[in-house]
Amino acid sequence: MTKLHRQSLVAYGQPLCETVVDCPVPRGSEILVRVERCGVCHSDLHLQDGYFALGGDKRLDITKDRALPFTLGHEIAGVIESVGEAAEGATIGRRVAIYPWIGCGTCPACSAGEENLCSAHRHLGIAVDGGFASHVLIPHPRYLLDYAPLSPVFAGPLMCSGLTAYSALKRLTSRAERSPVLLVGLGGVGMMGLALTRALFREPPIVADIDAEKRTAALAAGAAQAFDPSDPQARKAVLAATGGVLAICDFVGSDKSLQFSTGVLARGGKVVVTGLLGGNFSIAAAMIPIKAMTIEGTLTGTLADARELIDLARSGKISPIRTRDRPLSEAQAALDDLRAGRIVGRTVLSI
Ligand SMILES: [Zn+2]
Ligand SMILES: [Zn+2]
Q1: CA of 301 to the centre of ligand 2 (A)
Q2: 115 alpha carbon to ligand 1 midpoint, in Å?
Q3: pLDDT digits (tens, 9 = 90+) for 214-247
């Protein structure tokens, strides 16, 4: 019997380690995919910790959401290895990216096509074993997306960092047609946001990050201007350069990043928050109507968004972001580097 090799979370707050079990056999509409690449995402760090920081000493405990040992990894591209008898259209050998935000299929969110927001979800690498493994089991062929002629290194991360940035930018479309978007935070999602902004909107974005190397990388990738939000003059500099920003993506999601983002908004402006760094953000309540501001959160994206995004990428309109390939056995080292902020672009595990 084929063995399933995984880099498993065996205890919260502890390093991943290899576990080996028998490979599952797909039944019904299920598909077994041999993983080729799986991206490493910042949310994997929170999952490994077992909580999200809510500010002060408060934590959102997320240890109840899965059984251990558990396999992280939700940015998966692979090859169909075997299929259940009812997995229509899932041809063995087909190379696919996997939409990981799989819902229950019956709740109001799922019925509206928002499986990413399902409250009884089966999100891969979050609630159900994911892609830091040799194989992954998928419940239905509808979650498999052809990605040729893209590389699997590019296609995997499109399903989380790409999808998150795409879904956030879609929420800014009408404002982005009037003036440049500001992207705050240039990690994997932020750099993907930069590539997407170049593909979706006429004007190149302005960017902000506390890391000089990331600002340089963003300018090289087509950003119009880059600001250091840790500079006390940064807010004034952005306001002087723009007169106030209408459309902001906050890929950090911390008290500091939101202070900065809301501080440079123009009247009628909107901040879309995707980042999960945490902290406790407060704002003078009167500023919400005075600035007619919108603060909106978004969590990954829908299956329809994922299909749109893959189509956009397959048409050659999105420049691939910088990626680094590492073997699956280095999953923990990749997480450590991400936690230390040592990553520019995306790390992708090669299986
Ligand atoms: Zn992710
Ligand atoms: Zn549901």
Answers
A1: 14
A2: 15
A3: 999 999 999 999 999 999 999 999 999 999 999 9
